[in-house]
């Protein structure tokens, strides 16, 4: 059962995005500090077991294990609170009381170790355990409070450890060495915990900023299209409204000029219809080169590195038939939208080449997510692309790239597009 759980966890990590992977790596690295502390304490006690009382070794082991377990729990709670994700957990579990309990457990473990050494129940080398208890104990406490208060709180186990060393009667030379080691270890652990939490917060903010940039890029494109529509239709609609009002007044008076005004309205309406079709046609059937440049700009604005590779001038104007160029332009547009909305990509590569009478377009990004109840590429957007490509004799492939870790979208369009209703066979 443990093996199955481990396999499921590994699959979940491999299927997660970059942000989730970094979170899991840093979180479990901090949690593993408690395991490392318990293991180091156990090795130290085993090394001194021959010269120590069995009950003292067992008691010190139990206290150290409780201290390490409480440290892992405190790390989890304080890290969630630091990342503004654990407000509910804070109210439910009371991290303030957990902090007090951890400080008490640390002081108790240090006092028990020092007292056992002073009483002769533990061998003198066991005083090295105070360095571990105090040094590792400073890490979780560095997350328990904001700013300088956190480091003042992290100094509590160090002061308790120094007190235990002095009370146990440790000689001057070893006392100075153990004290210096304790202070350095505590500073390293406190800085490691605090810096790790700060990195996670920065990653969360960068991820949120990237999503915002993606939405702004899409919104900017919508505003551009709306501006073009306004520029085309605004004046004509105003003229139509005025001439219609004038024609109505003339009709009430029985003037034959009303017919002329309505004829003019009809002409302007048809002209507006023609202009709006040109705007929509330009938006839908933009050149492939323009689509590639636009996709690169949108992705880079969203914080995703984008590289476009065109082989043999395949992306140059006129290099492809109009129907093939329009279909591939739709692939670039839909693929860019999918990267922005459905991937945690840091890099996207677009490759366009000609191979044996076929134009091949590949879009590969490194932000593939695990599919949720459906096969990759089963969305309505890709289904629409398949329909568009099939109309010009092309095909679309979508799924994990060879080697895994990235998502590959591949579109193939023949340079000689079949006519509608043709059998598809060529002489």
TrEMBL record:
Identify the residues that the record assigns to the Signal transduction histidine kinase subgroup 3 dimerisation and phosphoacceptor domain, covering every copy: 221-287
Q: Which residues form a coiled coil?
A: none
> Sorted alphabetically, which keywords does the UniProt record give?
Kinase, Membrane, Transferase, Transmembrane, Transmembrane helix, Two-component regulatory system
| Any single Pfam family the record assigns to this protein | HisKA_3
Q: Does Membrane appear among the keywords? A: yes
Q: What GO MF terms are annotated?
A: kinase activity
CDD domains named among the record's database cross-references: HATPase_UhpB-NarQ-NarX-like
Looking at the record's lineage, which domain of life comes first? Answer: Bacteria
The UniProt record lists the keyword Kinase: yes
Which residue ranges does UniProt annotate as crossing the membrane? 28-47, 53-74, 99-120, 126-143, 150-169, 175-193
Listed name of the protein: Histidine kinase
- Organism of provenance: Streptomyces boetiae
